[in-house]
């Protein structure tokens, strides 16, 4: 839904036919004004994009895109313009991103590149995958957006793997899920929510969940963290809703 609530952005996937080369579905992205219900194509199948999101002005969208021999970056495109503008310049592929509601900040996750030694071994045929042994953690980066340019990009120091994140409605805070390692069981059982101050970059572990964690969000006034989680370490499901005061840790 667009920020003004008047339009939507959506995707339509069409399976490949039997005569086409193997691959995924053909994905086309559309916008539609909810008043006249007339769809307009914003991305056809000739350009591979993912994670398109409205910008705060409601006239442009951001998205992930990878050019030939490049890295997956965040790009921006006006709804009524075919020109694409690259926003980020990450050294490695961006896994996921989010632009703050006020359009002034951007956060994204990346995994550091492998070492030169490992690249050499891979080229020589020693690029073995050892299940859950040579997995690297994802890091969280935060930057400022000023007139279409990103400034002051810095890594948020969090011990472990950043599995997800989202901005608060007031754009002043960021909630991030962090677990010790980028492993399936760690994501399921050991993820905690940290609240990060966007201006200073300082982080604080806030959630007190034991075991599985579900979705999480900072309240509109920025004072509370809301999350779903297991009742305790023996609960096999995400079965409860919790509200915690970010300042003093009071939990309901």
Task: Give a quick set of tags describing it.
18 strands; four-stranded antiparallel beta sheet; 2 helices
Tell me about this structure.
The longest helix has 8 residues, at 116-123. The protein has two helices and 18 strands. It is mainly beta and 252 residues long. The two termini are 31 Å apart. It has a four-stranded antiparallel beta sheet with strand order 4-5-6-7, with no helix packed on it. The chain has a four-stranded antiparallel beta sheet with strand order 8-9-10-11, with no helix packed on it. The protein has a four-stranded antiparallel beta sheet with strand order 12-13-14-15.
CA-atom Rg in angstroms: 20 Å
**What strand line-up does the widest sheet have?**
4-5-6-7
> What's the number of extended β-strand segments?
18
Biggest sheet character: 4 strands, antiparallel
Q: Give the proportion of residues in helices.
A: under 10%
On the 0 to 100 scale, the average pLDDT is: 93
Q: Please identify the structural class as seen in this structure.
A: mainly beta
The low-confidence parts are none
Shape: globular
Q: What is the number of helices?
A: 2
Strand content: 35-45%
Give the topology string: H per helix, E per strand: EEEEEEEEEHEEEEHEEEEE
C-alpha termini separation = 31 Å
